[in-house]
């Protein structure tokens, strides 16, 4: 039985720039940075949780390079969406939407360095869905 997702991988064109963005701009924690493997760097970050890591994979083939910025939408949760929005805006992160208030909670979208969309969601108190 499959029980959980532990990693998701995105293609990046510069692992050092991606690391700086995710660690310094978003406040993600570095969980692995193994540069000792020949021709491969295993680089993972996490948004302050122990059960999921985002792999920042260096795109090298034409197929991988074509996938940069087209990885889908990642959903993140927030306990203070207004503070997170203001902090990302102050750091110059691209924010294509303002905070939207929905019946299921509030959200906004930001883009990483490569155009991948991240939807930040804060559920209303008592939300069970």
How would you describe what is shown here?
This protein is α/β, with parallel strands linked by helices and 129 residues long. Helix content is 21%, strand content 34%. It is built from three helices and eight strands; from the N terminus they run βαβββαβαβββ. The strands form two sheets. Strands 1-4-3-2 form a four-stranded mixed sheet. Strand 7 and strand 8 (117-122) form a beta hairpin. The radius of gyration is 16 Å and the shape is globular.
Keywords:
3 helices, globular, 8 strands, single chain, 4-stranded mixed sheet, alpha/beta, 129 residues
Low-confidence stretches: none
Instruction: Kindly estimate the percentage of residues that lie in beta strands according to DSSP.
Output: 25-35%
Please, how many helices? 3
Distance between the termini: 23 Å
The radius of gyration computed from the alpha-carbon positions, rounded to a whole number of angstroms, is 16 Å
SSE class: alpha/beta
Shape: globular
- Please provide the ordered H/E string of secondary-structure elements: EHEEEHEHEEE
The neighbouring-strand order within the major sheet is 1-4-3-2
The residue-averaged pLDDT reads 92
